[in-house]
Specification:
The protein is α+β, with helices and mostly antiparallel strands. It has three domains: 2-81 and 228-299 and 555-579, 3-Layer(aba) Sandwich (D-Maltodextrin-Binding Protein, domain 2), CATH 3.40.190.10; 101-215, Dipeptide-binding Protein, Domain 1 (Dipeptide-binding Protein, domain 1, Alpha-Beta Complex); 308-546, Dipeptide-binding Protein, domain 3. It has helices spanning 2-14, 72-78, 133-143, 195-198, 207-217, 270-275, 288-295, 326-338, 341-347, 385-395, 424-437, 452-457, 478-482, 506-515, 521-538; strands at 31-32, 45-46, 50-55, 86-88, 95-97, 102-110, 113-119, 162-168, 173-178, 230-236, 240-245, 258-263, 281-282, 300-315, 415-420, 444-449, 467-473, 541-554, 557-558, 577-579.
Length: 583
C-alpha cells in the first residue's frame, strides 16, 4: 500500500514539469546559466507547484552528523528539515546567518571566547515546541566526545573546545563559552536536532541515553518532526523521499508545495529522467557523455562551476599489508607513484573543464590563500612506474612486476577497490587505478557498493575496502572541516570523526590541534601545510582534483542554483519555485 501511494506521488511530481515535448519556454538546446554564484537564477517566483530532485544514493541514515551511513545526499534531503545557524553560500567564501532561526549570533568576549545566540522567538519545531538553548546544548553534548563517548559523530572539532552551553530568556538565548578559542565557530550548530524528541529515545541526562538518541533515534528512521520549511511526508528506501510544507514553519517561504527527492543511483538514467519530465532537477557527478546528452535537451538550464568537493583515493590502514609500518608504507608509496593523476583527469572531468589540474593538497583549494603543492613534489601521481618499482625493491619486496611478495615472504593479496554503485566516473577512476598498479605485480579488484557510508566506517569489520574513492568536502574553514579526517582516534571513542583510514601520526595531531585553536590565519595555514606535507609523505590519501559541479534543471524554475559546499543546491530550498514568467 505504501509503495502504491509513493508511485502515485512520483507520477504527480513528474506531471508538475512541462508537458512532454514542449521543453518549457525554451525551444532550443539546453542553456548554460552563468552569473554571481550567490544569486544566479534568481527571479520572481510564485507560490505553489512541485519539484522532483535526484539523489544519487539512498538515504541510509537520517542523522547527518554521524559518519554511519551519512552522505552528501542525506544532507541534501534534510537541509529543509533540520535548521542550521549559519549556511555556507555558493561563492565558497561566505557563510550566511540563518535569521529565520536566530536573530543574531555575536562574539561578546575573547577571554574566554563567548558567543551569544539570540534565537528567533517565533522559531518552533513542527509540534509547536519552541526551538531553544536546550537544542544547542544537546548538539554540544552529543558531539564533544566527553558527555557521550559512544556517540558516533562525524566530528568533535569545535564542540570539544566548548566549556558550557547555557540558556536564558526562557531558553531563547543560548550562551556558548569556550575553554579554548575556536576561530571557525560559525561552523557549529548545523543540522539542529530537537532535544525534546531526543528525550523520547532515551534519558539524555546520561551518556547512554545520549548515545541511543543520537546513534539510533535520529538515524534509523526519517524524522516525523521538522524545524525547517519542509517536513518529510513519506519515504520509500531506494525510491524517494517526499517532503511537504511544514505547517508550523516560522520563516519566509517555502514557495513549492512539495519537493520529491527521487533516488536514482545509475547516473546514466538521470538525463533521460529529466528529458521525460520525471524529474525537474539533477546534480550528477560530472561526466562528458552525460553533459553532451544534457546539452541537447530543450527547456533545460544547466550550471557548471567550481566546488569544494575533492576526489581522492584512500587506503585502509587496518589491512596489515597497507598498514603504517615500513613494508606497508613502501607499498602505499609505490602505488601512488605509479598512479597518473593528470591521466585520470584527462580521461574524466578534464573533458568537461579542460583547465583542471591535480589538487595536491589535503586542506586547501587552489583558490584559497595558503594553498601549496605538497603532493606532487613527492613524485606521487606522476605515473613513474620505474620509481615505484624501485621503492618496492628497496623495501625488500620480490615478484615485482609479476606477483608481488612482501618482505616477510607473504604474497600481497588482491586488493579490493570500492566505489559508489552506478557512478561511472568513479568506476572509471577505479579501473584506471587498477591498470596503473598492475605493472607492479599488484592485482586490484574494482567493486561497487550500494552503501558507501557503511563501507567507509567498517561497521562489521575493518576490511570493508582496501582502497576507496569518494569526495571529501572542503570549506572556507579548512582547519575545522578537514582536521578531523587526519586526527588520531582518541582512546575510548568508538567512532573517530572522519578518520576512516585509521591514520595516526603524533606530529600531525599536534599541528592540527593547534590549527583549530589558533586565531591567527597565517599560523593556521602554516600548521595545515606542515601537517599536509607529513600526511602526503605517509601516503594514506591521494588528492586527485577539485571536482567541478554540474546542476541541471527545468527552465521554468527559479531560485535553484549550485552550491560548492556539503549542503549542495538544497541550501536555499525554501526559495525554489516556479518562475512567474513560466520560463
Amino acid at each position: 500500500m505504501v509503495v502504491s501511494a509513493l508511485a502515485l506521488s512520483l507520477a504527480m511530481a513528474a506531471c508538475s514539469g512541462a508537458p512532454a515535448g514542449t521543453g518549457g519556454a525554451d525551444t532550443g538546446a539546453a542553456k548554460q546559466i552563468q552569473g554571481d554564484a550567490n544569486t544566479v537564477n534568481n527571479g520572481p517566483v510564485k507560490s505553489g507547484g512541485n519539484l522532483t530532485y535526484v539523489l544519487e544514493k539512498n538515504v541510509a541514515s537520517w542523522n547527518p552528523l554521524t559518519p554511519i551511513g551519512s552522505t552528501v545526499e542525506s544532507m541534501e534531503a534534510v537541509a529543509g528539515v533540520m535548521p542550521s545557524v549559519y549556511v555556507p553560500q555558493p561563492d565558497m567564501q561566505t557563510v550566511k546567518l540563518n535569521t529565520n532561526l536566530v536573530l543574531s549570533a555575536k562574539q561578546t568576549s575573547t577571554s574566554p571566547q563567548t558567543i551569544v545566540y539570540k534565537i528567533n522567538p517565533k522559531a518552533v519545531w513542527s509540534d509547536k515546541t519552541p526551538i531553544s538553548a536546550d537544542d544547542f546544548s544537546y548538539l554540544w553534548k552529543t558531539q564533544n566526545a566527553k558527555d557521550c563517548p559512544k556517540c558516533q559523530v562525524a566530528s568533535t572539532t569545535g564542540y570539544d573546545q566548548i566549556a558550557s552551553v547555557s540558556g536564558s530568556d526562557g531558553g531563547k538565548t543560548a550562551t556558548v563559552v569556550f575553554k579554548k578559542p575556536f576561530a571557525a565557530w560559525q561552523t557549529l550548530f548545523s543540522f539542529l536536532l530537537p532535544s525534546h524528541i531526543a528525550a523520547t529515545y532515551g534519558d539524555i541526562k546520561t551518556a547512554a541515553g545520549l548515545a541511543t538518541s543520537f546513534n539510533h533515534g535520529f538515524a534509523d528512521k526519517p524524522p516525523t518532526w521538522s524545524g525547517g520549511p519542509f517536513t518529510i511526508k513519506q519515504f520509500q528506501p531506494s525510491q524517494a523521499v517526499i517532503e511537504a510544507k511544514n505547517a508550523s514553519w516560522y520563516g519566509s517561504g517555502p514557495n513549492l508545495d512539495q519537493v520529491t527527492f527521487r533516488i536514482i543511483t545509475d547516473t546514466t538514467q538521470e538525463v533521460p529522467a529529466l528529458q521525460n519530465h520525471e524529474v525537474q532537477a539533477i546534480a550528477p557527478a560530472p561526466q562528458v557523455d552525460l553533459l553532451n546528452q544534457l546539452k541537447q535537451l530543450q527547456g533545460v538550464n544547466y550550471q557548471v562551476g567550481t566546488t569544494y568537493f575533492w576526489e581522492h583515493f584512500e587506503f585502509n590502514l587496518n589491512n596489515p599489508f597497507l598498514g603504517q609500518n615500513p613494508a606497508g608504507d613502501a607499498l602505499r608509496q609505490s602505488m601512488f607513484t605509479a598512479v597518473d593523476t593528470q591521466g585520470i583527469i584527462d580521461r574524466t572531468v578534464g573533458q568537461i573543464s579542460p583547465g583542471i589540474k591535480p589538487l595536491n593538497n589535503h586542506f586547501f583549494m587552489p583558490q584559497q590563500q595558503g594553498y601549496q603543492d605538497n603532493v606532487g613534489s613527492l613524485g606521487f601521481g606522476k605515473a613513474d612506474v620505474a620509481k615505484a618499482k624501485q621503492i618496492l625493491q628497496t623495501a625488500g619486496y620480490t615478484g615485482i612486476g609479476t606477483k608481488l611478495v612482501a618482505p616477510d615472504g607473504k604474497p600481497v593479496p588482491a586488493l579490493r577497490f570500492v566505489y559508489t554503485a552506478g557512478n561511472q566516473l568513479r568506476q572509471t577512476e577505479g579501473t584506471l587505478f587498477a591498470s596503473y598498479v598492475k605493472p607492479l605485480g599488484i592485482t586490484v579488484n574494482v567493486e561497487p557498493t550500494d552503501n558507501l557510508g557503511a563501507s567507509q566506517v567498517h561497521q562489521d569489520s575493518h576490511y570493508d575496502y582496501d582502497i576507496i574513492v569518494f569526495a571529501w568536502v572542503g570549506s572556507a574553514f579548512p582547519a575545522a572541516i578537514n582536521a578531523p579526517v587526519y586526527l588520531s582516534c582518541p582512546k575510548g571513542v568508538t567512532y573517530c570523526s572522519n578518520n576512516i583510514a585509521n591514520y595516526r601520526n603524533a606530529n600531525v595531531d599536534k599541528l592540527l590541534k593547534d590549527s583549530v585553536t589558533n586565531l591567527d590565519p597565517t599560523a593556521v595555514a602554516a600548521d595545515l601545510n606542515k601537517a599536509d606535507k607529513q600526511i602526503s609523505s605517509d601516503a594514506v590519501s591521494l588528492p586527485l582534483y577539485q571536482r567541478p559541479g554540474l546542476l541541471a534543471y527545468d527552465s521554468k524554475y527559479g531560485g535553484i542554483r549550485n552550491n560548492a559546499n556539503y549542503i549542495g543546491p538544497t541550501y536555499n530550498i525554501a526559495d525554489w519555485g516556479l518562475l512567474e514568467s513560466g520560463s
